[in-house]
């Protein structure tokens, strides 16, 4: 008798709800595409005839600047997050104490589940002119006037690093956890010091995780809205804040839609480039 | 093995570095907690006088009350629907071969990469097109889409831990597929289902960007109400709400962790 499990019982029951959700996702993306190709009728949510004008609207300096700044901010954030996240991931995987392991895990991961609004607000309290950093520095007598951190790119990047750090730690730790430690022991028994063993064995072997973490951090930063909006305070224009402005303040759905698409293409393109550029590097650590 | 002084120094500086980074991670939560119990409306560190008046104001502020209620309704619906949809799909993904499997998986996991503001805008224009904008149905659908990848992952990982021979044994003893599913597969999956549901609930309760696009005055969720508040007022009421948020999220995560190790869900446990 063929076991029942091989006959795919309930397949339609299992898959149909998922198909419905997938249809909604595809329909939403199709709606964006449709709006991006139709003319904007001021004062109305309906659209006019077919046009490519929305995309040529993207050539305006303010939009180009936002696109460029977004890619730069995402790149810087992903890079800093990588450098800050690596030691934490390493400690998480390598510490022998179970207690320390769970402390690191819970500390590093809890912010992942806290929404952007809570975290962004918390950072305004830290970075503000009368906030934690400035108050502490002033009491220590290190500064007289507050350092301007709110409404600056630096402030936005600090908060964004904090937002993307958990996911970076998770992806790096996943890669590090699957490295066979015998390779490292072999290098050390052949006379390599811990630094050399790390640089020539562990680091190259963890490169797939580095690339995955970097691209995910890039995508998350690209998606961030509350952080650049609140901490940037209008001084730091990125794609997400511009889409919001166009879509919900001016109700210009067509241009908002074409900017979303351009942003998506730009993000996917950059991530693809990063992966490609990293391929020769990964070959170094190939198995 | 003999450990030289330089190796020991390296170890110590590594520990200090990791400690500093962890401090950076928890800093905002600590600072916001301090601010929430500060008696004065203007932020100052350290607070001169402590009080719980901002908690009282947070709990009695009308927008937060309706926002909380809306959030609870949306979260309950979205996490439950996502659990049903995600469980079925994870089982199909793990066990069966079917047409368009990879394509369907790609579409359902795409919210991990497609920015939430794009998803929100797409669903807003879609809903506007069919005259359902700003309704609860669209908000719930948006949340289902955004949290589904995490449910699929949780359930899929628990499925990997189930010994399929138990199902085969039940089937060979004459149990029909429905009985195998109800008495073997689903009970064995229970920890994965609970943690998947909890993850979905936590993420949905915290979701903001996509919600900002699809909610209206009557349907705004708590994070959207908080965003509205931060733009208008600068007192520590929001710090009080944040503290409540942080406490609830940490509690829910601890519960999820006991049902199914976080390390396992996040795939960060050392293999050997």
Automatic annotation (TrEMBL), chain A:
Keyword Transmembrane helix attached: yes
Localisation: Cell membrane
Superkingdom per UniProt: Bacteria
Spans through the membrane: 12-33, 70-93, 98-114, 149-177, 197-218, 253-274
Biological processes annotated in GO: transmembrane transport
Record keywords: Cell membrane, Membrane, Transmembrane, Transmembrane helix, Transport
GO cellular component terms, semicolon-separated: plasma membrane
UniProt cross-references to InterPro entries, sorted A to Z: MetI-like, MetI-like_sf
Membrane topology: Multi-pass membrane protein
Gene3D superfamilies the record matches: MetI-like
Positions of the ABC transmembrane type-1 domain: 67-274
Family: Belongs to the binding-protein-dependent transport system permease family. CysTW subfamily.
Name by which UniProt lists this protein: Putrescine transport system permease protein PotH
Gene responsible for this protein: potH_1
TrEMBL record, chain B:
GO CC annotation: plasma membrane
A Pfam family: BPD_transp_1
Sorted UniProt keywords: Cell inner membrane, Cell membrane, Membrane, Transmembrane, Transmembrane helix, Transport
Subcellular localization(s) per the UniProt record: Cell inner membrane; Cell membrane
Main location: membrane
GO biological process, one term: transmembrane transport
Membrane spanning residue stretches: 12-37, 68-93, 105-130, 136-159, 180-205, 238-262
Entry keyword annotation includes Cell wall biogenesis/degradation: no
Record's keyword annotation contains Transmembrane: yes
PANTHER family, alphabetized: INNER MEMBRANE ABC TRANSPORTER PERMEASE PROTEIN YDCV
Family label: Belongs to the binding-protein-dependent transport system permease family.
Protein name: 2-aminoethylphosphonate transport system permease protein PhnV
């Amino acid at each position: 008798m063929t076991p029942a499990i091989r006959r795919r019982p309930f397949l339609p029951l299992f898959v149909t709800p998922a198909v419905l959700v997938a249809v909604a996702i595809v329909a939403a993306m199709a709606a964006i595409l449709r709006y991006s190709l139709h003319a904007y009728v001021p004062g109305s949510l309906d659209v006019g005839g077919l046009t490519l004008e929305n995309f040529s609207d993207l050539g305006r300096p303010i939009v180009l600047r936002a696109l460029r700044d977004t890619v730069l901010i995402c790149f810087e954030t992903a890079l800093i997050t990588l450098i800050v996240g690596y030691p934490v991931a390493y400690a998480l995987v390598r510490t022998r104490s179970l207690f320390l392991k769970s402390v690191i895990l819970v500390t590093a991961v809890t912010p992942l589940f806290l929404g952007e609004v809570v975290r962004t607000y918390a950072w305004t309290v830290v970075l503000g002119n009368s906030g934690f950093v400035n108050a502490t520095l002033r009491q220590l007598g290190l500064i007289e006037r507050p350092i301007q951190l709110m409404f600056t790119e630096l402030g936005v990047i600090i908060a964004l690093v904090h937002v993307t750090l958990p996911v970076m730690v998770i992806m790096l730790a996943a890669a590090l956890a699957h490295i066979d430690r015998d390779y490292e022991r072999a290098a050390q028994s052949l006379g390599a010091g811990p630094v050399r063993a790390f640089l020539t064995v562990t680091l190259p072997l963890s490169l797939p995780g580095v690339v995955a973490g970097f691209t995910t951090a890039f995508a998350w930063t690209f998606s961030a809205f509350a952080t650049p909006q609140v901490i940037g305070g209008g001084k730091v224009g990125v794609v997400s804040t511009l889409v919001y402005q166009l879509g919900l303040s001016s109700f210009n759905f067509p241009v908002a839609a074409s900017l979303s698409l351009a942003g998506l293409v730009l993000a996917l393109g950059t991530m693809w480039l990063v992966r490609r550029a990293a391929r020769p590097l990964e070959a170094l650590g190939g198995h | 093995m003999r450990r030289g002084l330089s190796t020991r120094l390296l170890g110590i500086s590594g520990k200090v570095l990791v400690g500093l980074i962890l401090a950076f991670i928890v800093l905002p939560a600590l600072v916001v907690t301090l601010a929430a119990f500060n008696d004065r409306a203007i932020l100052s560190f350290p607070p001169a006088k402590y009080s719980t008046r901002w908690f009282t104001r947070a709990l009695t502020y009308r927008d937060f009350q309706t926002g909380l209620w809306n959030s609870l309704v949306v979260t309950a619906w979205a996490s439950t629907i996502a659990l049903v949809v995600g469980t079925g799909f994870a089982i199909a993904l793990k066990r069966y071969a079917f047409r368009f499997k990879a394509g369907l998986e790609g579409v359902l996991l795409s919210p991990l990469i497609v920015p939430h503001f794009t998803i929100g805008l797409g669903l807003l224009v879609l809903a506007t097109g069919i005259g359902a904008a700003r309704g609860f149905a669209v908000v719930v659908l948006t949340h289902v889409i955004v949290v589904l990848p995490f449910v699929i992952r949780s359930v899929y990982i628990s499925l990997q831990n189930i010994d399929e021979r138990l199902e085969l044994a039940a089937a060979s003893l004459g149990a029909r597929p429905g009985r195998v599913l109800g008495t073997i597969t689903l009970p064995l999956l229970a920890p994965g289902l609970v943690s998947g549901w909890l993850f979905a609930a936590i993420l949905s309760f915290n979701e903001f960007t996509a919600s900002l696009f699809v909610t209206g005055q009557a349907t705004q969720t708590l994070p959207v109400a908080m965003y509205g508040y931060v733009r208008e007022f600068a007192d520590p009421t929001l710090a009080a709400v944040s503290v409540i948020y942080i406490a609830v999220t940490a509690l829910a995560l601890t519960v999820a962790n006991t049902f199914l190790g976080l390390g396992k869900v996040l795939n960060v446990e050392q293999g050997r």
